């Protein structure tokens, strides 16, 4: 995967992208505010109002913890069901089979740290994998997009595998480098629409801050509104600098636009484990091929 060479003003304007072989459609939206990303607004990071330590956070009830665990693990449960169906294709039961003891009990299948499988509809936290119909569309060719939201305004996401050759400091992106904490972090091209976003991996410390939106288990995103709090959390050793990945720009679709593109064969949709995204993998080179391999496909079309 070629790296995107960025200049300091590469993403100051939204870009017009026309996908071939469809009735002309411009991939550009008006500049959207951070409010659409549903990030809880925090005060200045110096006040530390948004970054409470775990010791100061109220302890959730056992019911809350149970509900959180169930909500976080449903993707893994579904993945085990899919893997079980692939490993043990359904067969007609014999006359001597007791349906109460077999048909209602799916086979136990263990999952590795990395897994991915196709799903029929886009959902928050899924991956969009570009198909051959996007070959030649440089921005989206062989991209893997993480869908952050499917909200009422329209789906939003970020391209995971378009690293730049420049750091935040070199790009002079002051909105993503409030205190210099992240100045040496590489900056990724997240999409043609204007906005600075970041992903962060972490556990209860990140979740209990109440500032970031959880995309999938242990993976959160934030905007320029919450980068000050992110820097404060690094100073408090709640997370490390290496747990962040920063993006210049994002992808956005009108309410039904993405579904139309999926039906048209421009994107394949997949669920995956958080380890597939792997924020520590700075380049993400080969992610497109890796996801296809995990799905057991050489192609997605």
TrEMBL record:
It comes from the Eukaryota. Residues 47-69, 86-113 are annotated as: Disordered. InterPro entries: AlgH-like. Gene3D superfamilies: VC0467-like. Pfam families: DUF179. Residues 88-108 have a biased composition (Polar residues). Residues 52-61 have a biased composition (Low complexity). SUPFAM superfamilies: VC0467-like. This is Uncharacterized protein. It comes from Centaurea solstitialis. The lineage of its organism: Eukaryota, Viridiplantae, Streptophyta, Embryophyta, Tracheophyta.
């Amino acid at each position: 995967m070629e790296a995107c060479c960025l200049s300091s003003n590469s993403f100051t304007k939204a870009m017009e992208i026309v996908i071939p072989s469809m009735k002309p459609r411009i991939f550009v939206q008006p500049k959207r505010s951070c409010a659409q990303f549903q990030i809880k607004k925090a005060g200045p990071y110096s006040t530390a109002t948004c970054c409470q330590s775990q010791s100061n956070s109220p302890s959730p009830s056992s019911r809350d913890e149970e509900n959180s665990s169930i909500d976080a693990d449903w993707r893994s449960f579904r993945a085990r069901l899919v893997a079980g169906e692939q490993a043990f294709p359904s067969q007609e039961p014999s006359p001597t089979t007791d349906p109460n003891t077999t048909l209602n009990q799916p086979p136990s299948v263990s999952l590795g740290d990395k897994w991915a499988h196709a799903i029929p509809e886009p959902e928050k936290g899924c991956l969009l994998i570009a198909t051959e119909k996007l070959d030649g569309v440089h921005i989206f060719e062989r991209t893997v997009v993480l869908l952050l939201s499917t909200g009422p305004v329209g789906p939003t996401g970020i391209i995971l595998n378009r690293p730049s050759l420049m750091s935040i400091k070199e790009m002079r992106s002051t909105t993503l480098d409030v205190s210099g904490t992240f100045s040496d972090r590489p900056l990724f091209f997240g999409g043609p629409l204007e906005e600075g976003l970041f992903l962060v991996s972490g556990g209860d410390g990140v979740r209990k801050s109440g500032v970031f939106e959880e995309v999938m288990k242990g993976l959160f995103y934030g905007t320029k509104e919450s980068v000050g709090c992110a820097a404060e959390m690094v100073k408090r050793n709640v997370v490390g600098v290496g747990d962040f990945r920063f993006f210049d720009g994002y992808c956005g679709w009108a309410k039904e636009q993405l579904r139309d593109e999926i039906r048209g064969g421009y994107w394949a949709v997949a669920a995956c484990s958080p380890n597939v995204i792997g924020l520590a993998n700075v380049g993400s080179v080969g992610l497109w091929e890796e996801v296809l391999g995990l799905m057991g496909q050489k192609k997605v079309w």
